[in-house]
Design brief:
Shape: globular
Largest sheet: 4 strands, mixed
Radius of gyration: 17 Å
Number of helices: 10
Strand order of the largest sheet: 2-1-3-4
Helix content: 55-70%
Strand content: 5-15%
Number of strands: 4
């Protein structure tokens, strides 16, 4: 019996795209269930009654929530093209950096574009987190956090690679420059040009218009 895989999604979301990248890496066919987040479907609310948000992966009727949890689930169920390292220490390190990105980097970056009256402080905080990632890439000396190919950490950082530059353009506020963060810039260019990534990214024009409208820069 073939696997039945459905993804409840909003194609604009970097968290949804994490899951799509993982599915794409594994070559898994799935049904994309695009959600209107202003009018969420009964199925989404039923599958994710706690957070009531996307992404939700439904595999043979069983729902899995939270993007990084879903990515690990995909890696465990479909073993081809590993997303997490198999070595226990390397796997733990990948989980650490993915959690760092979720807990520290992304909140700090969003705060830059939503803060009022304290821009210097929040920019400094965001750059501090980005510098930690810059130093990690420099230390590894690889094309990606995962080495020669992308892994969990690269997928977790998809917002930094694609969505951040669109936010910067929409708000006319530049954080990541090649001179200040050369390794992050090089990594981001390589990541968004990976075939499994660029196939699922939302259209640039769509996201730019969305961010300009949301953050008031027209």
């Amino acid at each position: 019996m073939a696997d039945e895989v459905m993804l409840y999604a909003d194609g604009r979301s970097p968290f949804v795209c994490r899951v799509k990248i993982a599915l794409n890496m594994k070559g898994i066919e799935y049904k994309n269930m695009e959600e209107d987040l202003q009018n969420k479907s009964a199925d989404l609310l039923n599958y994710n009654p706690v957070h009531k948000k996307v992404p939700v992966l439904v595999h043979n009727g069983n729902p899995i929530m939270e993007s990084l949890v879903i990515v690990e689930y995909i890696d465990n169920v479909w073993e081809r093209v590993p997303i997490l390292p198999r070595d226990p220490y390397e796997k733990a390190a990948a989980r650490f950096w993915a959690k760092f990105i979720d807990d520290k980097c992304i909140p700090a970056l969003y705060k830059v574009f939503s803060s009022k009256g304290e821009e210097e402080q929040v920019i400094a905080e965001a750059c501090e987190q980005l510098q930690i990632l810059e130093d990690e890439l420099k230390l590894k000396g690889n094309k990606f956090f995962g080495g020669d190919s992308i892994n969990l950490v690269d997928i977790a950082a998809d917002f930094i690679a694609y969505w951040l530059q669109l936010l910067e353009e929409a708000t006319e506020m530049k954080l990541v420059t090649r001179s200040k963060f050369p390794k992050i810039t090089e990594w981001a260019e390589g990541f968004v040009n990976c075939q499994v990534v660029k196939e699922i990214l939302p259209p640039r024009a769509t996201m730019l218009a969305y961010y300009k409208n949301r953050f008031g820069k027209i």
